[in-house]
Design goal:
The protein is mainly alpha-helical. It is built from 3 helices and no strands. The protein is globular, with a radius of gyration of 10 Å. The relative contact order is 0.19.
């Protein structure tokens, strides 16, 4: 399976959604990333 690459803008958008109060579990499911990836980004 090919790895999905995210641009810096996409990563920033995901982190901003988390800052605004979206639950991490819902956010990572919607974006299609693992919890580990999310916390590595933040």
């Amino acid at each position: 399976m090919k790895r999905k690459r995210f641009s810096v803008e996409q990563i920033v958008a995901v982190l901003k959604q988390a800052e605004l109060g979206m639950p991490v579990a819902d956010l990572i499911r919607h974006v299609g990333i693992s919890e580990q990836t999310f916390y590595r980004w933040s």
